[in-house]
Amino acid sequence: MTRKIAVLAILLLATACVPSIVATPPQEPIQIGFYSVIPQTEWNRPMMIQNEIWTVDGFALQSLRFVEVAHGETLSGNEDPEGKAPVFRKTMLYTEIQEFIVETLASGGWANVKPKGLKPSKFGDLPGFRFSFSMLSEDGLEYDGVVLGTVRDDTLHIIAYVGTRLHYYPKYAKDVEQLFKSIRT
Predict the structure, then answer these.
(1) Closest listed residue to residue 156, CA positions, set 86, 72, 85, 69
(2) Which of 14, 85, 137, 162 is the most exposed place for a label (fewest CB within 10 A)?
(3) pTM of the model
(4) Does 3.50.50.60 match the CATH number of domain 20-181?
(5) Residue 164 — φ and ψ, nearest 5°?
């Protein structure tokens, strides 16, 4: 009997740790920190405390990430006691921010991370940057991505869309471009 109660307690605790998931209503503004976006597609949005990650078909297939990185922090937000993970500095130029993101992806197990097309771009009403990239998963699956970002109040704010090259990246790329254009700061 005690064993059954212990198993039940573990199951209850495990389900309590799973974030609830809501769907983003298309064409309705969603507030993300200091800015809002208007999604064109219904995305699955786990209700998380920190940075947001949305998907339609599954995180391994495509994801849309809304990330804030304060001065002196890593992109993942996790502590790095060994000091090996790249750290954001508020004085970084856009080229250095691109390198920071690429190095973080590479240190996270992605291979052949190749950025391209870094250019100034608006993030709502703020000056910002954007670039595209390609990379390989540890299993050799090809991915494409795009990053739009800005630095505000010594914090890096990025929206990154990543998907498998053959189907899922192009499937939602136009919707993501519309989401980028919808940013209101």
Answers:
(1) 69
(2) 14
(3) 0.86
(4) no
(5) -65, 140
